[in-house]
Each structure stands twice: as C-alpha cells, then as structure tokens.
Amino acid sequence: MGSYLRYVSGRFAIFVITVFISITIVFIAPRLVPGDPLYAVISKLAEMGGSRGSPELVEEYRKLFGLDQPVLTQYLCYLRELIRGNLGYSIANFPVTVAELLMRSLPWTIGLLSVATVISWLIGTFIGAISGWGGKESKISKVLVPLALGLYTIPYYILAIILVFLFAYVWRIFPISGGYTPGFPIKFSLPFVLDIIKHSILPALSIILISLGWWFLSMRSMIVLLQGEDYILLAQAKGLSGRRILWRYAFRNALLPQMSGLAISLGHIFGGAIILEKIFAYPGIGWFLYSAITELDFPMIQGGVLVCILAVAAANFILDLIYPLIDPRIKYKRG
Amino acid sequence: MMIRRKISKRSRLTIISAGLALVFAALLIFGTLSVQNAYAQPLPREETLYVAISKRVALGPKILNIYTPGFDRSRTGLHQLVMEYFFYVNLETGEYIPWLATSFHYSPDFKKITVNLRSGVKWNDGWPFTADDVVFTYNLLLENAPKMVWSAEVAAWVESIEKLDDYTVELTLKKPNPRFHLIREAFPAVRIWGGVTILPKHVWEGKDPVKFNNYPPVGTGPYRLLSSSEAAFVYERRDDWWGTEQYGVKPAPKYVVYQYFGPETSVAIGLTTNDIDSPAIGILSLGSYLEAKKKNPYVTAWYARAPHAWLDPCPRLLMIQNAKSPWDRKEVRWAISYLVDREAIVELAYEGMTQPSWGLYPYYKGLDPYFTTIQDLIQKYPTTKCNPAKAEEIFKSLGFNKGTDGVWVMGDGTRLKMDFLVDSGDSEAMKVTAVIADQLRAGGIAVTIRPLTGAVQSDTRLRGKWDIAWQCFCPGDTDVYDNLELFHSKYYVPLGEPAPWYERNSFRYKNPKFDAIVDEMAVTPPSEVEKIKTLFRQAMQIWFEDLPVIPLTQTPALVPFNTAYWVGWPSAADPWNMPVNWWATFNLVICGYPSPKTGEWVGGIRSSRPR
User: Would A274 disulfide with which of A286, B104, B365, B468, CB 3.0-4.6 Å?
Assistant: First the structure.
C-alpha cells in the first residue's frame, strides 16, 4: 500500500507541475503575438459600419482589464485569481465571464463527443477483435477492412457534409443544424431531451463512423499480432474454446493500448471539434477556443486552454493510476 | 458450481449488453421518428420569419446590453425588433421617417435642437415612453463616457439635455452643428445600420450601465424576446405595439427567429427547403444563391436577374499608406490607380454583381445632384480607367527603371515593393486582394500579400503597418460631407500609433486646403444645397488631384429572400425600402412605415398564405 501511495503522489506531483508550466505558457504565448486584444473590441465595432469615439472606448477598457499594467503584475494577478477560482471576464464578450462561457459550451461538447467517442470505441474495439481473431482470410475481414480503411481516410467534415445532404436535404429526417429547435421551452422534459438527441445524431454519426475505422483497425492489428504469442498457443494446446481464448486471453491483452487511446481521446474532447461545430452549427467549446484565439481574448484563451490542459493531464493521471490495476505486469516499485 | 457461475456471468453480460443496445436503439428510433412531431412545430412555420445569421452570438443569450462594446446588435435582432429610434432614413426614397419622434428643429445658431416625441408609445412592460427616458439616456451616456459604446461621441457634441414637457426635449450642443441629426452615434436616427439607443429609465436607473444584463430586454419595438441562445433568438409579436394601436397595423409574422444555421452549404439548403426566409449579407456566394434559386422558384433577391445584388452604402476603395515613401507621392498613387483593372475585379471577385466606381460614394439617387456638379472632374480624372501604359509613363517620369525581373527600381536603387494587408477572415477582401495583387505584379510591383485576422489585423491596420489595403468606406449615403470628413487631417496620427478608425484616415492623408473646405462644409446646413455643392466641388478637385485612396467598385449586397411564406420584400421592381435584415431599419421592412408626405402606411411584408 505504501508503494502505491508513493506511486500516486509521484504521479500527482507530475500532474501539478505539468498544469503549472502549461498555464504559464498559455499566459505568455498570446502576449507574444503582435496584436492588441482590445482591437477585438474594434473588430466588433467595425461591423457597425464605421464608428466614432472608438479610441477613447478602447483605452477605457484597457484600464478595466488591467492590460495597462506590467506583464509580471498581470501574471501574478492571474495566478491569484486562478487560485480563487476566478477566470475573469472575456474581453471580446464583456461583461460575460469566462466561466459562464465555458459552462455554456462545455456540456454540449462533453455530451456529444464523449458519447460519440465511447460508442465508436466500443463498436470498433469489439468488431476489430472478432475480425482479427477470424484471420485475414475471413469473410468479415474482407468486407470490413476496406470499409474501415475507407472511413478512416475520409475527413470527418466531408462525411458530415454528405450526411447533411442525405439526411437533412434529400430525405429530411434530421434537422440541418443546431443543438435544439429554437423556440422549444428549455426545461428537462422528454420532448426536449428527444429534440436534443435528434439534433445530435448527425454530428455524432460523423464522429462515430470516422473514428470507428481507427478503433477497428488498431484492435484488429493487436489481435492478429497476439495470435502467435506463447500463451495463446498454450491455451489452444489446453483445448480451450476459441471464443474463450479470444475474450479471456487475447482481448484482455489487446485492450491496454485501446484503453490508452480511449483515455487520450476523451482528454482531447475538451478541445472541441471546431469544423463539426461549424458545419452543424452545434454548440461547443471548439468555436469558443477559435474565437478566443482569433480575437486574442487573453482571459478566454487562458480559461479555455486551462480546461484542455486539466482534461488531458487528468486523463493521463487517471490512466497512470488504473494501469497497474488493469495490468498486473506494471508495478509501483522502481527497478 | 464452476459451470453454473460461468453461465450466469455470461448471461448477465449478454442481458446487460442486449439491454443497453435496446435502450440505445429505442432512443435512436424514438428520437428520429417520434420527436418529429413533438419538436417539429414549436413555432408554426407559416407564422414565423426565419433570418439566417452568419455566426453564433457569444454575448447575447443572457446579456442584452446594447451599450457594451462586444454586444452584437445585428445578429441578436435586438435593434431591429425590440429597440426603436427617433427617425429612420430610407436610402431608396430619401425619406427621413418620423418614428419615436415626430419632428425636430434647430435654434437659429444651431446650438440647440428640439425634438418632439410621439405620444402613446409604450415600452413592452407597459410603461409609457416619455421625455424622461430620453433625458435619462443622454445623461447616462454623458456620465459614463467613454465606457458605453458611442458615449464618447455623445460627450463630444452634447452639453446638456432638458425636458420641456413630457413629449419634448431640448439638446444643447457644445458647438454649432447643423447636421447633428445625421450623427447616428449621438442622435437616435438610423441612416445606416443603427443609432444611439434610448433606454427605459424605469429599468436602467441605478444599474451599472456597462455590466447590466438587460435581460429580458425592454423596448418599444413590435416584438418581445421569447427565448435566446448563442445560435437563436426567438421573438414574439406585441399586440400592444404603438403602430398597432395608432395605425391599426399588425406586423405579419407572429414570430421572428434570428438563427445561426451553419456554413454556406447549410444556409443554401435551408433556403432551398424553405426553412430560411432571409439570410444575412455575406453568407451566400452568387453560385450558392443561383443554385438555391434554380431548385426553389420562391428564392429571389433585389434583382430577379443579374446583377441580383442590392447596392450597399459602403463603396470599396484601396487605401494607400500616404505617410510612407514612395506612396506619399500623388503621382505614384495615380500610377497604381492606372494599373488596377476594375472591370476584371467586378468579373473575377464579384462575379458581375457590381460595377466600377469613380469615387468614394454609393450611387444613390439622392446624391445625384452633387455628382452632376463634378461631372467634368470625373471626366478629367479617370479614376475608373485601367491604363498600364500611362502608369509606366508616370514611373519613368519619376526616374524609375524596370529591373531584369520586371519589377520597377526606384531612383535610390530599391525595388518597388508593396506590403498588401488583408483580413483573412473576410472572403470578399481575400478575393479582391488576390485579383488586385496580380494586376499590380503584372504592372511591375513586387506585391506581398499579408493575410491577418482578428485583433492582430485590426492593430496592424490602425497603426498603418502596411503599404496598401482594401477597405470599405462608410457611411456617405445621404450627405456628401461624411465621406469627405474621413480624409480630414484632424484624424491624422503618426505611423505606429492607432488611427481613430480604418477609413477614418488610417491611410494618413494630410492637406490643409482640403481640411479648410471640409471645416466650412461642417458648419453649413445640409439644406443650403447650392453652397454645399460649391464646397463639394472644391473638395473633390483636391481629392481627385491628390488621390489619397484609390476608388475600386460599388458594393454589392447579395441578400436573398424566400417568398414561400412571406411576400412584399423590397426589390428593384418595388424599391420601397432597403433589403437589410441586419440594420435597425429592418423593423420597417417587416412592419412598413407611415409615409412622411402622406401619412399613409407604406410597405411591410405579408403572408403568402392569407387565411
């Protein structure tokens, strides 16, 4: 138990250091870009068809956001507020706070991408295992491998456009875009939940179909490789059934890299899927991050990237914790 | 025992898997089919007007404060449907339409302006709209300048405001200004896009005017907000709107939705399937529009045939950095002008939707009397002419020689290089820039296109860190003074410092003689047409001679309409208003308006399926 605690505290220290270094880089990097975040405000005013009185407004907001202070002062303020859990106001969307913008977009991203990722992982992994166990000459492999390769190589946004064309235009089964139907009373009710599901099916399908190819191919390769392993041969020599060898021996061993892949994919969903969000006009954090970066909105960049950093670092941390539990070959002790 | 346990485990797994699969399948099927009816018509299609917006609105769903700098008035629909203004200008007819105000007049010295307000107008929470609201709004702007959007301009002009009675206010100006009623940033009259907005005192009093969320928004307009998200704003018609009570006019759509449908392809599909009634400017290319029109006969635009587009009030010009050598020489600027083939720009970048432009004004009929006075100058200074031979002649006269690579070399031995700044987020700018860059390269200039976007682009443009940049010039729509004033040296700042605005002299032009004429024009009432004409001619003589920026094209605004559910849209065949759903004037497109001459109600869209 002592060695496990040491292992956990070591990993936690790495997690904290990673997050600290990352948030420092995220603070510095946007400030190296030659541009003034207050001009995001000017960009908005430009849409009004020219505007008088803008320089005075910009200078006022520069003071309000503390951007007239030295960078070190800004950094210390940022750290202090971060510890207090305050991500500040978005410059481009003042007076909306970064936390509010995150809370508004994250549930959509997590809901769509995590469900789609897990579904594609489950289907791809299981079909990949069955296909791999059947060998190269099996009928299932002959059909599924080219299909998976085809799906994997199609960019998901191309597939998304095809899906919209087929299911929203030709057959009109699903809506063209959006997270839910405008005008729908927003409350936890069955019709509203079903409306959300209906709007999420095409975006989810474009992710599932594309990533399915990858999960299928990677699992299939692992199973094919494992078939020559000594312990598989031993199991066969013992006369165990093929199904038992596949699911109890080969599958469990092939699962480790798939689990790592799943954890990393789940960590990355916090970066959003900007093109998908664009095509389906689907709410999410991808658009949030894109706007923040193009508008040099420092607090929004810092807040959005902080979530991504925490998600990826946490995914790796959790993976480090559960690896020894899944695979007894991984030990806590050094040497 | 062992066998039993194995079987039971497997059974459990099978049952759980089958159960999960069933639940998922049920949700999927139920979601795709059953929801069809449940969700399909939360808003009856035949009573709803759908406007497609070009992007999502981050600031808006919960904060609808029109005076915060990031607030998106156009895409939320707020200034079109909920807020209203004293007057609206109809650029098509030249009418100055009374709305929340019925009339105004200046004092003889143009230091005071008295405004008579319409009585019987109610805010959408039932409170009356009175002079108290107007006085409160102006004082709020004056006290909070420059934090509130446009408050700096209000503070620059307004000394004080006084309530004369419940429906009359008097503004005292800091200096005489006979065209104060045309400054939309200081007076609630909409010429283009929008204007300073009067707020309900009973709602805003005691609130922080910058952080107040103003949700739900209280306005005097014909609609009230029903629901909002980043992607859609849903409005419902008011039965107690003053237009209904005073004129018996009810806006035809019961609901109006400003919605983000996604990229161009989705909007084209939505237009084809009659899910969208009016997309905003800049979403559809001509190709997508024509494809939608081919598939759906209900789709149309300002012109039913080519050039399809309405004329936008902001012409496109090429800014040249006057503060940098060799662009500080007017001869060089003229040579650049001769190298530009505007017809090619029209064909290649605009697909034939517009026409070359000789100057800095939109071709609106109301400006024709002024244009007539300078016809000889337009002939003398051929700003629409592409003449590479003339450009070569000018370069040679300046001592330039063509190098072996075909690029001009100046007297000091340096190559004629040009840094062409472009906003990469603006597809129109990208297209035009590519065409012009090719033309200038063919003319012997080493052009480097520098695409930037967002804050970096704005910063670079305002600080003048470029040689040449494409730009729209607003708003010279009804008054020739406005666009000339953009060239006044009071807006000149040294290179490296941010200019007040892009077209407000970020090209750093300076000519004291020109300034003097513009200053005189500023104190001349627009009603003194003959004097304005004389001053306009003098100013344009200098402008053409110096050519501080290079005219390119008039501006096409391709704004499609769908007539499947709603008809009566303004068009070239019936130009009763401007077809712009992102301006505050869209209120008048939906509702129509009382003619200032006859008092009769004009226009307004109506249902194509009368019941």
Answer: A286
